[in-house]
Amino acid sequence: MIQTQSFTVTQPTRIQFGVGCINNLAKTVQDFNGSKVFLVMDPALIKTGIANQITAPLDNAGLPYFVYDTIDPEPGLKLADKGYKLAKSNGCDCVIGAGGGSAMDVAKAVAILLTNGGKAADYLGLDKITKPGAPKIMVPTSAGTGAEVTFTAVFINEKTGSKGGMNGAPLYPEAAILDPMLTLSLPPKVTAYTGIDALTHALEAYTSTQAHTISEMYSLEAIKLISRNLPKAYANGSNLEARSALLMGSLLGGKALATAGVGLVHAMAYPMGGMFGIAHGLANAILLPYVIEYNLIGNMEKFASLAAILGKKTTDMTTREAAERCVEALFELNADVGIPGTLQDIDIPVEQLPEMARIALTVTRPVENNPRQPTLDDVINIYQMAYEGNSAIFY
Fold first, then answer.
1. Which of 161, 166, 309, 393 could serve as 123's disulfide partner, Cβ 3.0–4.6 Å?
2. pLDDT per residue over 289-344, tens digit each?
3. Do the bridges between strand 152-156 and strand 163-167 make them parallel or antiparallel, or are there none, so unpaired?
4. Residue 2 contacts by C-beta under 8 Å, 6 or more apart in sequence?
């Protein structure tokens, strides 16, 4: 049955997917009239040799480029501002973001600043960007954020210590090149963090109050691909089939969140990154089953259907019993891929939980999207459960 809810879907990014498609990078730059590239690159790519696979097509085509590789896992606004100055002074007219979400977010911001001017902080919030950016081409080398197809760039504000994003249609990349070969050297731990991050995007988009027919299509396929292939890629990083499935799942998860938004998991993960520098994927992964347990009554039917997709037998169960199996499946998946079970395990100070909860509730859009509307006490209690490893469902 087609729902009556109104929605808008914007999908401007040209996507190339497949083994070896990184070789199309130079032609893609030329297709968007780029003559000198500002290449924002995760520094880990240089250590692993993947950087050479990205720069080789540019070298072969004789395209000049400037490499900006001082990217932090949780980037601050200053990185975007510094990148803008370097890109402008070097006469760059096209931006490539290669790596994980951090590199891609910095690349998006630099492209916007090249045409809009000012500082990155000027564009925090929704729809504050007035002009299209310089052409932006994203090359993800992990299967996690889906940033290659979203209209968001997330940063830590060094002045406030808070984490927030630029959001607006001009941030959609013009092109994305997804080559599974670039993900083969990803370490197991990073594979796990980014994989659960992508799964969180899909799960939260599926149960978002803004979900609709198209977003649900993306979400469900992403959940299937990620949940069934993440343990395989974690166990054997050279499994190209599993890596390809994860990269596609991450892409579809990005499409889902771009059209339906994310929820309370993301809102609660933000202060963990802003206050303690916890990697975004890890924060999402630890919180995910606890928040889903809290959310169950907000849409019991959807969570029940997810349990079956996540591999749980739900025949002859009540809707509530089936929904609870969804939480059980998420705890088990986390354990399979080495995700710490509690906030204690990553040294989050228990006395900071109330302040974290206060900050989480200021991340308004994800909170509004959540299928159950939380109070401050609710959020504190979820953090407390995640701190103690206290679940009523899984033990």
1. 166
2. 999 999 999 999 999 999 999 999 999 999 999 999 999 999 999 999 999 999 99
3. antiparallel
4. 213
Report which residue type is found at 177: I
- In order of 26, 59, 76, 138, the CA distances from 22 in angstroms are 9, 13, 28, 11
Predicted confidence (pLDDT) at residue 86 exceeds the cutoff of 70: yes
pTM metric for this prediction: 0.94
Q: Which residue has the tokens 């081409």?
A: 137
Q: For the beta carbon of residue 232, count every other beta carbon within 10 angstroms.
A: 15
Reduced to 3 states, what is the DSSP secondary structure of residue 289? helix
Residue 187 contacts residue 214 (beta carbons within 8 Å): no
Does residue 375 sit in helix, strand or coil? coil
Same fold, 14-183 and 188-388: no
**What residues have CB less than 8 Å from 379, skipping those under 6 apart?**
264, 268, 357, 360, 361
Which residues lie closer than 8 Å to 34 by C-beta, 6 or more apart? 63, 93, 94, 135
The whole-angstrom separation of Cα 157 and Cα 165 is 9
Domain ranges of the chain: 14-183, 188-388
Q: Is 41 helix (H, G, I), strand (E, B) or coil?
A: strand
Query: Is the distance from CB of 141 to CB of 100 less than 8 angstroms?
Result: yes
**130: buried, middle or exposed (CB in 10 Å: 19+, 13-18, 0-12)?**
exposed
Contact 105, 93 (CB under 8 A): no
Which neighbouring-strand residues pair with 15?
176
**Rounded to an integer, what is the distance from CA 34 to the centroid of its chain?**
27
CA–CA gap between residue 20 and residue 180 (Å, rounded): 8
> Which CATH code fits 14-183?
3.40.50.1970
| Residue owning tokens 């090359």 | 139
Using the structure block, give the residue that is written with the tokens 């899984």.
394
188-388 topology per CATH: Dehydroquinate synthase-like, alpha domain (1.20.1090)
**CA 289, CA 52: separation in Å to the nearest integer?**
39
